[in-house]
Each structure stands twice: as structure tokens, then as C-alpha cells.
Design brief:
Blueprint (H helix, E strand, L loop, with lengths): L4 E6 L7 H17 L1 E6 L1 H4 L6 H17 L8 E4 L5 H10 L4 H5 L2 H10 L5 H15 L5 E4 L4 H19 L11 E4 L33 H10 L16 H15 L2 H8 L4 H28 L1 H30 L7
Parallel strand pairs: 1-2, 2-3, 4-5
Helix pairs in contact: 3-12, 4-7, 4-13, 7-8, 9-12, 10-11, 10-12
The chain binds adenosine monophosphate (AMP) and tryptophan.
Keywords: Aminoacyl-tRNA synthetase, ATP-binding, Cytoplasm, Ligase, Nucleotide-binding, Protein biosynthesis
GO molecular function, one term: tryptophan-tRNA ligase activity
Family: Belongs to the class-I aminoacyl-tRNA synthetase family.
């Protein structure tokens, strides 16, 4: 049996932060060694809500460069931009036509985002999960590493593959495309907001002090950590439900500094907040330094990134076209003769 295929993507909205790195991209870096990995920048998803075109273009390149700077190796993994491979939009249309509308109307993320957009809610926002299913099914992915909040979208992709494509359009005993499995990130990898330890660190939080962006300058990182919310108790501890901020910052120190929770608890159990924050600031700055340096090199040499994305597109396209053809045939669309 060949290696299992993994596919994932992040939207190029806002700037990638510590949560995206520790909760997602760091796992991808591990996965690329033992799997056939595809990582895309999902720019078509980013335009399902109002957006600024110049910013989207900049952040798409920035996100791709950050994948590489965090350790995704284009020799091992296929790195590409979703919209560069038109098969994503094409398969999305084909899947749209075999997906019941009521499967989409019950998506939690749609309801939340549609509530915010009101009468400006786009058709694309409703269709977001079908495009995501297309991203996954096109590559016959076996495993899809995603956060907990994407479970429902993954389930939809599985239902489209299993019940519709394979259930209604496959020849007896065959499948049209593979049914993917989610790979849910463990709870411990959740990074919480610096301003509220009960909320996830998020790109969409209007308060930039709530997150550490991977590209924040060292001075800014130190400042944000100094200003992070604390409580009135001295000594840093894990797992106290009354002290979510202590738990979150100590977890960061364990992950990026001493390497284990036991060592972090031992070292910081009696430490005051001031001393601890100084220490944590340096640890985070040190962890981000190599990423920022590599990012700087990549941005100074656009042709390298262009080359990676070109090669990624070519590899992705080969796989995607084959899947698209299978679906076209299964649905009865006539072959395109050369
Ligand atoms: P998003 O920033 O919501 O587009 O998420 C992109 C990826 O980063 C997903 O796989 C998320 O699960 C992961 N992610 C986002 N925020 C966090 C966080 N605060 N902690 C851990 N993982 C996160
Ligand atoms: N919806 C995902 C998120 O917000 C991003 C995404 C789009 C994705 N297409 C994907 C993730 C395909 C995994 C696989 O995190």
C-alpha cells in the first residue's frame, strides 16, 4: 500500500498567529515525512466574505511563504494556491448539483457568519463547505488535519463522497472518489487569546493584542505578553478552571521553552507573573526568530516562492484532473477530446 495522502489548507485572511502554527502547521510539518502531503492556501474560501483585493493578493503570498518558513518542505509536500487549480471550482459546481440544499443550511459556521453578514450574505458563503469538500475529494485525501470547528464540514465532505458520489453514481462495487477521515488536532494544541483565556486565539479578533502573529517584531511580542491578561494569584499552574490565562501561558512556555508540562510546572510553580512573562517573552521571540528569518529571505526573493507555487500547481493539477475526469464520467458529462 502506498503512503496515505494528507490534505489541508488555511485561508489567507489576516495574519497567521501562534495558534495556527502550534495547532495546525506544526502538525503538517510532522505529517509531511510519512504521508503524501498537499497543503494549499484557500484563497477562494477567503472571498466568501467581503474582502480587500490588494490585501488578499498580499496575504495569499504571505501565507504560502509562512508555510515554508514554518518548515513545510516543497520537496516533500505539494504547496499550492487553491485558485491556481481550476479543478477546485469545477468540481465544486458538480458537487453543488448533487448536494441537497438543506445539508448546507444547517452548517453552524454558515449560520454564524450569515448572521454577521445579514442581507449581504453571499451565495459563496453558503457554498463554502461544498468548495471545501471539492478541495479534499479532488486529491482522494485519506486524512484531513483540521481543528475541532471544522468537524461538521468534514462530515459533509464524507457524506457527499459516500452517499452521493459513491452511493448514487458509482458502478456496482466501485467508488468514484475516496471517503476522507478527519484528523482532529488534540485539545492540548489549542492556543487561547492573550486577552481572554477562555477564547481561542483568532485571526478575526479585532484586538491585535489578543494574539501573537508569526510576523510580529520581537519588541511587539514582548509587549503583548507583558500586557496579557493575568489574575491575582502568584505562581503559574495548569488545569485550574478559574485560571485559564495561567494555563494557556504556561502551556506555551512548556511547548516553546522547556519542552514538557512537568518541567514548566516545576520551574514556574512559584514564580510571580512579572518574572514569568519576561521569561515567556524571550522564549516566544526565540521560537519565532528562525521563522521570521526564513520568511524574510523568501520575500526578498520572489522567484523562489513563484517556483514553489508553480511546481505545486503542476503536481496538484495532475492529481486533480484525474479525479475531475472520474466525476465527470460518473455524472454522464461527455469526454473532452483533445
Ligand atoms: P483559522 O485561523 O480559523 O483559519 O484556522 C486555520 C487552522 O489553524 C485550523 O486548522 C485551526 O484549527 C488552526 N487554529 C486556528 N486558531 C487556533 C488556535 N487558537 N489554537 C490552535 N489551533 C488553531
Ligand atoms: N475551512 C477550513 C478552515 O477554516 C479551511 C479549508 C478550506 C480546509 N479547504 C480545506 C481545511 C480543505 C482542510 C481541507 O480551517
Amino acid at each position: 500500500m502506498g503512503r496515505q495522502r494528507v490534505l489541508s489548507g488555511v485561508q489567507p485572511t489576516g495574519s497567521l498567529h501562534l495558534g495556527n502554527w502550534l495547532g495546525a502547521i506544526r502538525n503538517w510539518v510532522e505529517l509531511q515525512h510519512r504521508h503524501d502531503a498537499f497543503f494549499c492556501v484557500v484563497d477562494l474560501h477567503a472571498i466568501t466574505v467581503p474582502h480587500d483585493p490588494a490585501l488578499l493578493a498580499r496575504q495569499t503570498r504571505q501565507t504560502a511563504a509562512l508555510y515554508l518558513a514554518c518548515g513545510i518542505d516543497p520537496q516533500r509536500a505539494t504547496v499550492f494556491v487553491q485558485s491556481h487549480v481550476p479543478a477546485h471550482s469545477e468540481l465544486c459546481w458538480l458537487l453543488n448539483c448533487i448536494t441537497p440544499l438543506n445539508w448546507l443550511e444547517r452548517m453552524i459556521q454558515f449560520k454564524e457568519k450569515a448572521h454577521k453578514q445579514g442581507s449581504q450574505t453571499s451565495v459563496g458563503l453558503l457554498d463554502y463547505p461544498v468548495l471545501m469538500a471539492a478541495d479534499i475529494l479532488l486529491y482522494n485525501a485519506d486524512l484531513v488535519p483540521v481543528g475541532d470547528d471544522q468537524k461538521q464540514h468534514l462530515e459533509l465532505a464524507r457524506n457527499i463522497a459516500q452517499q452521493r458520489l459513491n452511493g448514487q453514481f458509482a458502478a456496482h462495487g466501485e467508488t468514484v472518489l475516496n471517503v476522507p477521515e478527519p484528523l482532529i488536532v488534540p485539545e492540548g494544541a489549542r492556543v487561547m487569546s492573550l486577552t481572554d483565556g477562555r477564547k481561542k486565539m483568532s485571526k478575526s479578533d479585532p484586538n491585535d493584542n489578543s494574539r501573537i502573529n508569526l510576523l510580529d517584531a520581537p519588541e511587539l511580542v514582548r509587549k503583548k505578553i507583558k500586557r496579557a491578561r493575568t489574575d491575582a494569584v502568584a505562581g503559574l499552574t495548569f488545569d485550574d478552571p478559574e485560571r485559564p490565562e495561567a494555563d494557556n501561558l504556561l502551556a506555551l512556555y512548556a511547548l516553546l521553552g522547556v519542552g514538557s508540562r512537568a518541567a514548566a510546572a516545576e520551574e514556574c510553580g512559584r514564580m510571580g507573573w512579572g518574572q514569568f512573562k519576561g521569561l515567556l517573552g524571550e522564549v516566544v521571540v526565540d521560537a519565532l526568530r528562525p521563522i521570521q528569518q526564513r520568511y524574510g529571505e523568501l520575500m526578498a526573493d520572489p522567484s523562489t516562492l513563484d517556483g514553489v507555487l508553480r511546481q505545486g500547481r503542476q503536481r496538484a493539477e495532475t492529481v486533480a484532473q484525474a479525479s475531475l475526469e472520474r466525476v465527470r464520467t460518473a455524472l454522464g458529462l461527455t469526454p473532452r477530446r483533445q
